[in-house]
Amino acid sequence: MIRHALVAALPLVLVASLAGAQASPDSAEHVAHVAYGITAGGLSAPDRHSEEALGAVLEYHPTAWLEAGLNPSVVRSTDTLGVAARTGLTDLGASLGVSHGFGLPWSPSVGVSGGLSLPTGRAAEGFGSGRVTESAYASAGVTPVERLALRAGFWHGLSTDASTLAGSSLSGEASYDAGRMSFTASYGGEVGGAGIAVPSREIGGGLSFALPRAGSMVVNAAHTLAGDGPRWSMNVGFGTAFAGLNAVGATSPVERLGGALGNAIGGLGRGQGRGRSTTKSNGNSKKGTA
Description:
Blueprint (H helix, E strand, L loop, with lengths): L1 H20 L6 H6 E11 L5 E14 L2 E6 L1 E6 L6 E5 L2 E10 L7 E10 L14 E13 L2 E10 L10 E10 L3 E12 L8 E10 L5 E11 L5 E8 L13 H8 L30
Antiparallel strand pairs: 1-2, 1-14, 2-3, 2-4, 3-6, 4-5, 6-7, 7-8, 8-9, 9-10, 10-11, 11-12, 12-13, 13-14
């Protein structure tokens, strides 16, 4: 269940805090170009099966406007009775994006990115799609008043295989910066896709706070209001990849956390990685998408 993912994340948080406290000031330039993160999450599905995931985030920023990223992850899935459990490597998420900020009132910024999901998971056991899938993501953000940021994003699956096509989704987010801590509320919804009887609608909320010289820690929870998304999901992440705004277009730490685990566990309306679930339960395949 979700609690196992959170318990597993706590030792990692302590290790990251210690590593950050011992970091040399001379490494600041290096951190500005390479960012890392550790993620953990879990969900409870409508059919009562559950999933937990542990992943990593690695980002390279050769310039202020260009970003490349990788998101490997491992997932553990239990059946609807909570008895049988399987663990496996999921498909590998990769992305490349560009962004630009404007020196105008409300400080607008925009970004676009492309995502790939590489078939590194065991598709025969339900841990992945068994093929390369593609997606595109665009986002925009403004700061109408000091400390308040508003963001909107649009994701679209580019794959043509009906078993992996996720259609499109829209997301909206509002964040308030309270100094060392920020609060975020979000809403996301599917707007199309093959085989979607009832489009998913999801609300969420999260907290982000700074760790001493080790980036930030982010906690997010979400609930599906309609459709076949997970009833509840919770994600935890920490590292420099979740500090401040992302280079790829006005995305918050909470949104980046959801995108980092998008190939591993269910969720919609966040980041480059959409997908309701990566694993099979009772013979019904619910494969994730890029």
